[in-house]
Amino acid sequence: MSERIFVAGHRGMVGSAFMRRLESERNFEVISCSRSELDLCDTSAVDEFFGRETPDVVLMAAARVGGIHANDTYSGEFIYENLAISLNVTHAAWKHGVRRYLNLGSSCIYPREAAQPMSEDALMTGPLEPTNEAYAVAKIAALKLCSHYRKQYDVTFHSAMPTNLYGRGDNYHPENSHVLPALMRRIHEAKEASLPEVVIWGTGSPLREFMHVDDLASAILHLLQLDDPPDWVNVGTGQEVAIRELAEKIKEVLGYEGKLLFDSSKPDGSPRKLMDSSLLRSTGWEPEISLEEGLKRTYSDFLSELAGGSLRE
User: Fold this and answer.
1) Average pLDDT, integer, range 266-270
2) Is residue 194 a contact partner of residue 37, using CB atoms and an 8 Å limit?
3) 3-class SS of residue 140
4) Peptide bond between residue 117 and the one before it cis (omega within 30 degrees of 0)
5) How far apart are CA 138 and CA 307, in angstroms?
6) Sheet with 241-242, edge to edge strand ranges
7) Vertex 67, ends 62 and 73: CA angle to 5°?
8) Annotation says 135 is catalytic
9) Which of 10, 109, 170, 293 is the most buried (most CB within 10 A)?
10) Residue 4's CB: how many other CB atoms inside 10 A?
11) What is the pLDDT of residue 25?
12) Percentage helix, strand, coil for the chain under 3-state DSSP, each rounded to 5
């Protein structure tokens, strides 16, 4: 008998990737609801929804997200909306008897100066990166909420902390997107306009880990099938790349022949963010998509979305 699974945030990059992954699964009956149909910041509406739909499983993939500029500029909105969403959905899931609840967080929960690679026990051992502190605090609260509900009520509520994600359905807003889609859009537009150079924020020296969203979708399904998952677990590739090198890889995939210039007057963010995903790997999961292959897939998806008028921006 199939279980009813509510995918919160099913139209986002992560939610839609998991929806695609579920197309080959026969064990789930999917429940989804658009933002216009259900405001997850509305406590009463969320409670009523759970009472009516009675899901067995919940994937919490809904969030207010963005890059350095968006996080720093709209910090009040980021902390309020993400706290409200997590509080409402987690409590309603417990209240209405959800059997399994998987909350998705972010690698930004770890301290700015955490030892690399960052393991789960680095949580709350030092100051956060100031430019995304608001978002990180909300995600830490969501993780702890699941952990304490699990402790007090003996429910399987747990969390996964993905590294930097990219892929189909990403947000390509010129100011509020994450670094990889922002670079891809900027370099694509420079290529189309035959511009001689592209200016990139920062020094290009920070190291980042990137994972294709389809790999995260497979990790989510894997975690949902574990009988006794960890309270929270990192999900990453274990590979890192400097922003400068990433930009060069994107330039090569796109076939852009101009120069890349780095504006060192702009912030870099954390100097390094590599996840230690050994705990998840010990349960039998491995990523499959290399950065080079992922960039090719993503640019193909970008062009299709741009041509079809569905590019998120």
Assistant:
1) 81
2) no
3) helix
4) yes
5) 36
6) 241-242, 207-208, 272-273
7) 100
8) yes
9) 109
10) 16
11) 82
12) 45, 20, 40
Between CA 107 and CA 13 the distance in angstroms is 17
- What one-character-per-residue DSSP string does 28-89 give? EEEE---TTT--TT-HHHHHHHHHHH--SEEEE-------HHHHHHTHHHHHHHHHHHHHHH
Strands annotated E in 123-230: 156-162, 164-166, 197-201, 207-208, 210-212
One-letter amino acid identity for 138? A
Which residues 6+ apart lie within 8 Å of 198 measured at CB? Answer: 186, 187, 190, 247, 256, 258, 259, 260, 261
Which amino acid appears at position 79 of this protein?
A: I
Report residue 92's pLDDT band, with 50, 70 and 90 as the boundaries. Answer: very high
Spans of all domains in the chain = 3-308
Tokens of 38: 């259900």
Nearest-5° angle of CA 58, CA 288, CA 185?
A: 85
For 142, the token pair is 């969501």
Structure tokens at 79: 């902390």
Question: Active-site residue among 110, 135, 149, 256?
Answer: 135
What are the beta bridge partners of residue 51? none
Q: What is the pLDDT of residues 193-244, one digit of tens each?
A: 999 999 998 999 999 999 999 999 999 999 999 999 999 999 999 999 999 9
Q: Which CATH class is domain 3-308?
A: alpha beta
Buried b / exposed e along 163-189 (16+ C-beta atoms within 10 A)? bbbbbbbbbbbeebbbbbbbbbbbbbe
Amino acid at 123: L
Residue 82, both tokens: 């993400």
Give pTM, 2 decimals. Answer: 0.92
List, as one string, the DSSP characters of 200-254: EES-S--EE-EEEHHHHHHHHHHHHT-SS--SEEEE--S--EEHHHHHHHHHHHH
* Contact indicator for 171, 69 with CB cutoff of 8 Å: no
- pLDDT of 1 over the 80 cut: no
